[in-house]
Amino acid sequence: MFVVRDQPALVLAPMDGVTDATMRALLARTMPFSHCVTEFLRVSSHPLALRSILRSMPELAHGSRTTCGTHVQLQLLGGDPELLARTAEDAAAGGALGIDLNFGCPAPTVNRHDGGATLLRFPERIERIVRAVRSAVPAGIPVSAKLRLGWDDPSAIFRNAEMAERGGASWITIHGRTKFQGYTPPAYWGPIGVVRRSLGIPVVANGEIWSVDDLRRCEEETGCRHFMLGRGALARLSLAAECATHLGLPATGEQQRWASGASSWLEAMALVASESRTAAEGDRRTLSRMKQWLNYAHKRGSISWFDSVKRAQSTHDLLRAASAAAGAAPFGRLAA
Ligand SMILES: Cc1cc2nc3c(=O)[nH]c(=O)nc-3n(C[C@H](O)[C@H](O)[C@H](O)COP(=O)(O)O)c2cc1C
Which residues line ligand 1 (CB under 6 A)? Predict the structure, then answer.
């Protein structure tokens, strides 16, 4: 479970506003991820109550697993070791199986309030935070850290990674860009490899993996066997399975069917609609999530009909417009 040295791993990246519990359930069912990470939960002026953690991570009530059994790790963000530790302690008592600490979020509002990437300028604080959370949860619960290369200086990763390990991190994930580099390509995988060789804990490589060839190049450059996929998994339905096959990770029959191309974008959207209905979510929220997902696919050239659906006013309209534009499966089957 989670990330261990001798086994490869393929982790679904946390993506705030995208990979909520409904999407985690859907993506874990259709794609062979080793585990998922929640969107960040911000801990600012007081420890989070278990009920607010449960709102963002309903999997907590189901053994910290998605409906198909994939483990989910809780991600916390903040700058106060004590508050983070108390939140992690309560979450672990409430059933969390793993805690990840966010040291990478570049959002100005988050950074202004002493959270995310801003901590990359203070290696000692990274150590203190990891150590406090590590000490607060039982030894069997892994505590990991997700970092960018630095705030503005990419070489900051060397000291920050060392401090995270010294604080007791079980593994670290590195997004190969500084906060200043935002999401502008490329991602720099070289420093990830340098860190991997210098630490005794596993390092998960992350950033700009859009194809299995990218994964292979990232593997060559870093020597990593652990990877995290974010936007690429959304932009290309078969990507996670192709990467899992390359890494020798198992896939279920349903996951193989998605990988074989038999599944379509229309089916993916119908699944979002039905999973959201089961979770009793509002149509507007579901519609926005569908458009966001399709937009990733559109930007990477996986679909040609985004313009026909981007103004849809309901999930029903979107599914109808998509099936007309794609000229594929009959709408009745998709909407069932
Ligand atoms: C919309 C969006 C939201 C994100 N939210 C989070 C988050 O909540 N926590 C986090 O650690 N990283 C977050 N990230 C960063 C991703 O986890 C990942 O590091 C980044 O997208 C690079 O990986 P990729 O190129 O595979 O997408 C987010 C990224 C995107 C695009």
Answer: 13-18, 39-40, 75, 102, 104-105, 146, 175, 206-209, 229-232
